[in-house]
């Protein structure tokens, strides 16, 4: 297809290339190219990272499980499941994991540290291998050989290097675990099913299953996670390749049959679940999923803003080409040739922007891998083709779907426009094109979000916000016009001219307000998430919160334990009885997971609760409904969040199974619990001073006095207790969250840049109109200083209005995301619209100064001649 005239014949593709090279020098095309590059880079950076994480977890799923399937329970695994696995010819291994205290011998310092104790059966692990090593005097770990199956020999313990450093021990020294003494046999370098660094922050200590009874650490209220791992025949890479299953083949069919049988058992036995290669290590995925959710939200906003920027810039681009296209029509260029030429040009720009965005996305995803390396905990394979396809499709969709529709109208410019410039103006987008663009936008955002709830809230919030922005903009312009008419002649000249600029063309003013508001909305929303949501997550611990929790205190140790606390200088401490109980019935009806649709409700009814009793409700648990009556018989006080999640109300009867002891009571009050207070809290409490029939242990929480060495004393005197140093654990948790937040803030740069592009594009579209109006005013005697003042007043006013509206909309959307997606406690800062007005005014003034620089100084004659 050629572009023809009486004197030349140029192929359409070559004309498109020539136009592209020329137009890239113009600000409109550069803004369009930059907006698409940023959108593709943001999306593909997240896409590359997520794809590599998914491939790494899939590749290492068997090692993360240490088997082909795992049955997890908070009680010993039923013997029927072990027998069923053996009958199917599957290999079986068992582990028991719980938190406990490890202590160095007195002659080696007697220091104590909270550890994750793991007792393993003789054929552990079934899949993957452990790596052992040694630690030199310089503290550097030197990997050694692969460990044999079965874990440490009887009487030995394998430990992670962090424990040796904490207790000042070395391989060959002895270690106390409860009432038993073990020799440290090796250092654990790597371990199957350990997962990422956040799975268990405490150092690992591994012993043989047969040695666990000697420690006397297993108490009635001990929180132990039991795992039954099953696998088919051994294969290359396993710790033991000598023992083969009895059945032929790879055993996958037998494993699947076992999984189906175990899942049937899990429907009738509470606290039991089945993990497979498809859903293995859910706690590892949980943190990565949360990080991915934040990253996808930021990428989603970047894509949304990029679409707005492309649509605005392309319309400005088309507006500037009207006269050129009219001249081409006079020279005889057909409409379809012009349409094909602009189609080629925008397709070329889309591919170029996509390629640049893919390159930037790949480079930036390497930053994510570095920032989140501690969370990942596995070596990542190469990314697949999906992120590349996503980047290319997004770039082309943004360019063609949102940029091409107004440009295609150039092919319909009449030749008569060269004489009558009011002809051939760009029309509003047709309903068909608008519906097509809206559908493409919806598909794009849902593809990016990969979460219908988050995508729906973000998209619906932005669409609703734009409608509200337009309505409020029209009301503001109308009110300003009325005010200007009443104050005419009584206000300074700059104020009169500024209000005239805003009210003379109300439609364009409202469009500019909407454009500025959309750009500011994304920025305000991200600032809210960063400052109010993420910061509240990280800084939830009050300064005076307890930093030590002690559990498993036996009833006969109460008086001596409290005396030791007071003697060490602990003046205040929480002290409550505690018993583990499972909710088995509500109003006489058995509780089943299948009766609840919400995932959190299913988790709650499947777990065991920590219950307690006290004559008075804790002072930090205000009663919000009902009455907490001292010594009321058969009464329960329930945390209001639990009641809301499970649909409980005052008067409902609950039945708990506490290690075989059944207790039923009526809900008489609801308490508000601040779980971030780091105090001792319970979901359910009985308003009684004593419950002799309950199998209780005790829990306490206190703040360690300065310079005290109480941890060591308590563990030495009470080997059965577990002392939890919350300050150290929270520091590590916050370190992990810090990595996630750093990655999110890194991606904020994309959205910040895209938001600024929207701001500048919204102002740039009015550049020529402002130039013409100010040329007329200058020809009538207005000075450059006066017009500069008018421009500043106009920009500050538009920015303040847009900032206040966008901040209010960000509060509404942030509330939805906080409560429905991220599940944060939301405390809306009511002063936010004032802050938004200030930020909006400053950003609009800055963007306007950059976009409109030189307009006031342009020669009057030149401007008026171009306008003619």
Task: Give structural notes.
- The chain has 868 residues and is of the alpha+beta class.
- Among the domains are: 1-62 and 284-450, no CATH class; 69-276, no CATH class; 573-702, no CATH class.
- A hairpin with a 2-residue loop joins strand 9 and strand 10.
Low-confidence parts lasting 5 or more residues at pLDDT below 50? 1-8, 195-200, 241-249, 279-287
Counting DSSP E segments of at least 2 residues, the number of strands comes to: 24
- The strand line-up of the biggest sheet is 4-5-11-8-10-9
Mean pLDDT: 75
Which structural class is indicated by helix and strand composition? alpha+beta
Radius of gyration, CA atoms, in whole angstroms = 34 Å
Number of helices: 25
Share in helix? 40-55%
Strand content: 15-25%
Largest sheet: 6 strands, mixed, barrel
Q: Give the overall shape.
A: elongated
N-C termini distance:
35 Å
Please supply descriptive tags for the structure shown above:
868 residues; 17% strand; 6-stranded mixed beta barrel; 6-stranded mixed β-barrel; disordered N terminus; elongated; alpha+beta
Summarize the SSE layout with pairings.
Elements: E1 2-4, E2 9-11, H1 12-23, H2 27-59, H3 61-65, E3 69-73, H4 79-87, E4 91-103, E5 112-120, E6 131-135, E7 141-146, E8 156-159, H5 161-167, E9 174-177, E10 180-190, E11 204-208, H6 212-215, E12 225-231, H7 252-268, E13 272-276, H8 282-320, H9 322-330, H10 335-371, H11 373-376, H12 386-408, H13 431-449, H14 452-486, H15 493-504, H16 506-538, E14 548-553, H17 558-567, E15 573-586, E16 589-590, H18 599-606, E17 609-613, E18 623-626, E19 635-639, H19 640-646, E20 653-658, E21 661-671, E22 684-686, E23 697-702, H20 710-717, E24 722-725, H21 726-764, H22 767-779, H23 784-821, H24 832-851, H25 860-867
Helix pairs in contact: 1-10, 2-8, 2-10, 2-12, 2-21, 8-12, 8-13, 8-14, 8-16, 8-21, 10-12, 12-13, 13-14, 14-15, 14-16, 14-23, 15-23, 16-21, 16-23, 21-24, 22-25, 23-24
């Amino acid at each position: 297809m050629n572009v023809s005239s009486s004197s030349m014949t140029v192929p359409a593709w070559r004309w498109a290339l020539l136009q592209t090279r020329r137009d890239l020098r113009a600000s409109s095309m550069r803004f369009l190219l930059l907006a698409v590059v940023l959108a593709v880079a943001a999306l593909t950076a997240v896409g590359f990272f997520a794809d590599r994480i998914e491939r790494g977890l899939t590749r290492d799923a068997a090692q993360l499980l240490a088997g082909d399937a795992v049955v997890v329970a908070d009680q010993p695994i039923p013997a029927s499941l072990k027998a069923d696995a053996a009958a199917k010819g599957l290999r079986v291994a068992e582990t028991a994991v719980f938190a406990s205290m490890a202590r160095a011998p007195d002659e080696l310092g007697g220091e104590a540290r909270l550890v994750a104790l793991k007792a393993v059966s003789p054929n552990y692990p079934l899949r993957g291998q452990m790596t052992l090593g040694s630690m030199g005097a310089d503290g550097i770990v030197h990997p050694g050989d692969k460990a044999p199956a079965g874990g440490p020999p009887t009487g030995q313990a394998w430990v992670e290097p962090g424990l040796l450093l904490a207790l000042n021990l070395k391989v060959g020294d002895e270690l106390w675990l409860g009432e038993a003494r073990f020799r440290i046999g090796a250092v654990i370098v790597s371990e199957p099913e350990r997962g990422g660094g956040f799975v268990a922050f405490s150092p690992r200590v591994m012993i043989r299953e047969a040695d666990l009874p000697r420690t006397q650490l297993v108490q009635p209220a001990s929180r132990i996670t039991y795992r039954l791992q099953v696998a088919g025949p051994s294969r290359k890479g396993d710790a033991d390749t000598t023992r083969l299953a009895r059945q032929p083949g790879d055993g996958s069919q037998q494993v699947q049959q076992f999984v189906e049988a175990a899942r049937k058992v899990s429907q009738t036995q509470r606290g039991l679940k089945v993990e497979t290669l498809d859903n293995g290590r859910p706690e590892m995925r949980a943190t990565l999923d949360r990080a991915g959710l934040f990253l996808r939200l930021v990428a989603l906003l970047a894509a949304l803003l990029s679409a707005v920027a492309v649509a605005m810039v392309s319309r400005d681009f088309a507006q500037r080409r009207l006269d050129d296209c009219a001249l081409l029509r006079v020279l005889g260029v057909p409409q379809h040739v012009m349409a094909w030429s602009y189609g080629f040009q925008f397709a070329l720009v889309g591919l170029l922007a996509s390629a640049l965005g893919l390159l930037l996305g790949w480079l930036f995803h390497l930053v994510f891998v570095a920032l989140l390396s501690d969370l990942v905990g596995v070596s990542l394979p190469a990314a697949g083709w999906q992120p590349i396809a996503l980047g290319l499709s997004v770039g082309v969709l943004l360019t063609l779907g949102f940029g091409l529709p107004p440009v295609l109208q150039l092919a319909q410019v009449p030749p008569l426009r060269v004489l009558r410039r009011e002809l051939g103006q760009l029309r509003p987008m047709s309903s068909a094109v608008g519906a097509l663009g809206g559908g493409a936008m919806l598909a794009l955002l849902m593809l990016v979000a990969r979460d219908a709830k988050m995508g729906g809230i973000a998209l619906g919030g932005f669409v609703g916000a734009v409608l509200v922005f337009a309505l409020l903009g029209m009301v503001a312009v109308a009110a300003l016009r009325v005010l200007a008419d009443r104050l005419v002649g009584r206000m300074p000249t700059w104020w009169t001219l500024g209000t005239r600029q805003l009210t003379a063309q109300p439609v364009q003013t409202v469009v500019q307000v909407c454009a500025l508001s959309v750009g500011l909305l994304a920025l305000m929303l991200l600032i809210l998430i960063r400052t109010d949501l993420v910061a509240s997550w990280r800084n939830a611990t009050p300064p005076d919160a307890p930093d030590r929790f002690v559990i498993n205190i036996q009833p006969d140790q109460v008086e001596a334990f409290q005396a030791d606390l007071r003697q060490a200088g602990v003046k205040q401490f929480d002290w409550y009885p505690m018993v583990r109980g499972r909710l088995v019935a509500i109003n006489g009806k058995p509780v089943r997971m299948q009766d609840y649709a919400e995932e959190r409700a299913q988790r709650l009814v499947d777990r065991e609760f920590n219950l307690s009793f006290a004559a008075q409700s804790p002072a930090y648990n205000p009663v919000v409904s009902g009455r907490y009556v001292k010594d009321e018989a058969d009464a329960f006080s329930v945390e209001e969040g639990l009641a809301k999640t499970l649909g409980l109300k005052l008067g409902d009867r609950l039945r708990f199974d506490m290690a075989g002891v059944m207790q039923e009571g009526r809900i008489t009050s609801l308490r508000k619990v601040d779980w971030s207070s780091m105090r001792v809290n319970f979901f359910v409490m009985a308003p009684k001073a004593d419950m002799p029939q309950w199998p209780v242990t005790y829990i306490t929480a206190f703040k360690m006095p300065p310079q005290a060495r109480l941890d060591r004393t308590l563990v030495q005197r009470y080997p059965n207790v577990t002392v939890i140093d919350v300050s150290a654990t929270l520091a590590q948790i916050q370190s992990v969250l810090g990595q996630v937040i750093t990655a999110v803030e890194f991606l904020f740069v994309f959205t910040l840049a895209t938001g600024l592009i929207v701001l500048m594009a919204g102002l740039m579209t009015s550049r020529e109109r402002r130039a013409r109006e100010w040329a007329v005013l200058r020809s009538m005697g207005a000075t450059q200083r006066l017009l500069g003042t008018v421009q500043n007043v106009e920009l500050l006013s538009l920015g303040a209005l847009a900032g206040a509206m966008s901040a209010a909309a960000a509060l509404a959307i942030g509330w939805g995301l906080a409560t429905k997606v991220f599940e944060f406690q939301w405390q809306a800062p009511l002063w936010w619209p004032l802050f938004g007005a200030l930020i909006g005014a400053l950003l609009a003034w800055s963007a306007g100064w950059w976009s409109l620089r030189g307009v006031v100084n342009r020669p009057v004659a030149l401007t008026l001649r171009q306008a003619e």
